[in-house]
Amino acid sequence: MVIGLTGGIGCGKSAAAACFAKAGFLVVDTDRLARQVLEAADIVPRLQARWGKACLGQDGRPDRRWIATKVFQDLGELAFLEGLIHPEVARLRRLAVANQSRHHVVEIPLLFEKNLTDGFDAIVCVASSKETRRARLLDRGLSVDDINRRINSQLPLSEKVKRSEFVLWNDGELDFLQAQVTQLIARLTSR
Asked: What is the pTM of this model?
């Protein structure tokens, strides 16, 4: 079984993915794959050619915070970055779930935005209140402007909830989220 896991920024997709991992699922984190691709030897020169040395840290690796600020302020720059990274992330994702003897959960924040719903046995959305999301993002060190830009760059959470087959509510304790995941897995494996 391969589950597509999505949700809005700050909703707790990674926490939900960890709950699936605890139940024996292999987790494929497409954000982690994107970070890996971003630092690939053939990508770094293309970033530097587009944005200059400012996009690199002192260690010569891409400065993800600088890049995030750049692309979330300019849709053209976001399209450039996604054009570089997304095809390779898609290839790596397909490779990661090729072992069909195991269950997988694939965490994809932009699952609906990028029309990546094919190939999943179920689509699950992690949702939480606006207040909880914003508090989590502030705790991560994002500014209010950064939070607004990132939330506005995604499909509204209400739309993600509507398009998903299942929804996990993540406003409470981790034990509550784990209980929801356990119930969902039982339901999915019994169909």
From this structure: 0.87
